[in-house]
């Protein structure tokens, strides 16, 4: 079993106590991971704090060069990192629509390069005889990052590369379910950075709260559940930390009656099931007009029946659900839906273990108040709901505390665009869903989060404004 180390102040750190990391396809322990305590948190934050003055004063062009170099170094280790991803997360390298570990690795490299190329130019507000007023963007200090288990590498990059690019230093804590890929990536990243700029600690239980309440951390970036996001916001108040919170989604899609079912069903299926449904902005509630309801149900069921689920190290479309708690949650929501009389077109039955495998499941004729609809299942199961009136569909789509993404599907792009703009969500798509890219801001409204990631808007969240007012005359 490989000996994994945390990195604090540029040095590998082991701990007496460890915790096991499981392969979700076999439930076997694949590694022991260091279990940090509060003292490690303090050491990591102190190292990041010491490294901040020099890193924030480093030339912008040099920080851009380093982030590009990180992309190249991670790419050079692609094969190893993708293997680790499959081992601890479960996703196959390719998978359905190529959205497995290969996608995550490719996205990692692409996001690094795109972030390296971002700029935060000085804005001149006024320049006349009275004064010159400039708006500067300054790094915040130490950024604390807590990342989830669905995309352990990609989300670590989303959190930390903008932080580094804009001159902050970092303490990252990956999910206790998937720490290995992030630990290895942190090792590679550290070879390119001064000690203390990028620190990583691992553990389970109480580390998150110790980080989010730490008085020497200036900003928290978190991707995960809404309840934990709320706790982070509460503890961030201790020193008025800035927060970027990317939380749960229960994205609705409205399919209008003129939609080409045959052409759009594969796209709808892919976006609902991406990463085995364990994606914050996956399509999770599908509202289909009654005229094409049965056709769409059958088209999606046919695709679901044609895909394979199994150990991600083999040639399969989908791997297991990442952890037991999530697997149990999907099973529970499915059983409740069954008991409510919903029609299961595919899946819905699990076979004996080992492994947290849940079949790709399509559910029709389900009521809005079933928990499978009103709550985020975060697994490979899609409820399809019927509507006859578009305004009613819009009301039902918006009737949620979540507001991450949403979409409208139609042959009439103008009608779909107008309707999409009335969805209460951070990103509204037309004839697609969950399509993200490094230069388009992405974030949630309502209880799906605060702030955005990606592009210039995302980068700005790692800075504060300093207005420079130079009087003349
Ligand atoms: P959580 O969202 O609860 O996050 C767990 C992480 O948060 C751990 O790293 C934990 O660290 C940390 N944490 C816990 N309490 C605090 C606190 N008070 N302050 C700071 N950090 C804290 O993850 P789960 O795995 O329990 O997932 C639950 C649900 O979240 C899923 O069912 C899914 O719906 C959603 N989810 C959403 C994701 C997304 O992409 N938006 C990704 C993954 C899950 P520690 O234990 O050390 O404190």
Concise structural overview:
This protein has 473 residues and is α/β, with parallel strands linked by helices. It contains 15 helices and 20 strands. The chain has helices at residues 38-57, 60-76, 78-89, 101-116, 152-165, 180-190, 207-212, 226-236, 261-273, 293-306, 324-339, 371-374, 390-398, 413-420, 455-460, and strands spanning 6-8, 11-13, 18-23, 28-34, 123-127, 131-139, 142-146, 169-173, 198-200, 219-223, 242-246, 251-255, 283-289, 343-346, 361-364, 381-387, 405-409, 427-430, 449-450, 463-471.
Task: Please provide a written account of the structure.
This protein has 473 residues and is α/β, with parallel strands linked by helices. It has helices spanning 38-57, 60-76, 78-89, 101-116, 152-165, 180-190, 207-212, 226-236, 261-273, 293-306, 324-339, 371-374, 390-398, 413-420, 455-460, and strands at residues 6-8, 11-13, 18-23, 28-34, 123-127, 131-139, 142-146, 169-173, 198-200, 219-223, 242-246, 251-255, 283-289, 343-346, 361-364, 381-387, 405-409, 427-430, 449-450, 463-471. A seven-stranded mixed sheet has the order 14-15-16-13-12-17-18, sandwiched between helices. Strands 9-8-7-10-11-19 form a six-stranded mixed sheet, sandwiched between helices. Helix 2 runs antiparallel to helix 4 (101-116). The chain is globular. It starts with 5 loop residues before the first strand and ends with a strand.
């Amino acid at each position: 079993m490989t000996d994994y180390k945390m990195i604090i102040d540029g040095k590998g750190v082991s701990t007496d106590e460890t915790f096991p990391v499981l392969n979700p396809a076999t439930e076997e322990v694949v590694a022991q991971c260091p279990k940090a305590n509060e003292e490690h948190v303090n050491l990591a934050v102190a190292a990041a704090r010491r490294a901040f003055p020099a890193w924030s004063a480093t030339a912008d062009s040099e920080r851009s060069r380093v982030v590009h170099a990180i992309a190249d170094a991670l790419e050079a280790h692609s094969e190893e990192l993708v293997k680790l991803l499959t081992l601890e997360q479960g996703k196959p390298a390719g998978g359905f629509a190529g959205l497995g570990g290969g996608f995550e690795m490719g996205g990692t490299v692409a996001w690094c390069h795109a972030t390296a190329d971002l700029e935060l130019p000085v804005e001149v507000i006024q320049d006349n005889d009275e004064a010159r007023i400039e708006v500067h963007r300054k790094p915040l200090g130490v950024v604390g990052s807590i990342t989830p288990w669905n995309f352990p590498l990609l989300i670590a990059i989303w959190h930390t590369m903008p932080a580094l690019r804009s001159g902050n230093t970092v303490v990252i804590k990956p999910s206790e379910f998937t720490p290995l890929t992030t630990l290895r990536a942190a090792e590679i990243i550290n070879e390119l950075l001064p000690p203390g700029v990028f620190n990583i600690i691992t553990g389970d239980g109480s580390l998150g709260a110790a980080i989010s309440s730490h008085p020497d951390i200036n900003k928290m970036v978190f991707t995960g559940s809404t309840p934990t996001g709320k706790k982070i916001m509460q503890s961030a108040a201790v020193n008025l930390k800035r927060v970027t919170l990317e939380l749960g989604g229960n994205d609705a899609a409205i399919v209008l009656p003129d939609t080409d079912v045959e052409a759009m069903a594969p796209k709808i299926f892919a976006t609902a099931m991406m990463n085995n449904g364990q994606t914050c902005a996956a399509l999770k509630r599908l509202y289909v007009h009654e005229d094409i309801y049965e056709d769409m149900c059958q088209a999606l069921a046919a695709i679901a029946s044609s895909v394979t689920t199994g150990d991600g190290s083999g040639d399969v479309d989908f791997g297991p659900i990442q952890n037991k708690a999530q697997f149990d949650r999907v099973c529970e929501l499915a059983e409740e839906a069954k008991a409510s009389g919903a029609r299961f077109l595919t899946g819905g039955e699990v076979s004996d273990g080992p492994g947290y495998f849940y079949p790709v499941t399509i559910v029709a004729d389900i009521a809005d108040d079933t928990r499978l609809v009103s709550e985020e299942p975060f697994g490979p199961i899609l409820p399809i709901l019927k509507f006859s009136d578009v305004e009613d569909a819009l009301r039902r789509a918006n009737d949620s505390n979540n507001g991450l993404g949403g979409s409208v599907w139609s042959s009439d792009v103008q009608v779909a665009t107008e309707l999409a703009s009335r969805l209460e969500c951070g990103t509204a798509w037309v004839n697609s869903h969950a399509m993200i890219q490094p230069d388009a801001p992405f974030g949630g409204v309502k209880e799906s989060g605060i702030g955005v990631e990606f592009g210039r808007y995302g980068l700005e969240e790692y800075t504060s404004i300093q207005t420079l007012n130079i009087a003349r005359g």
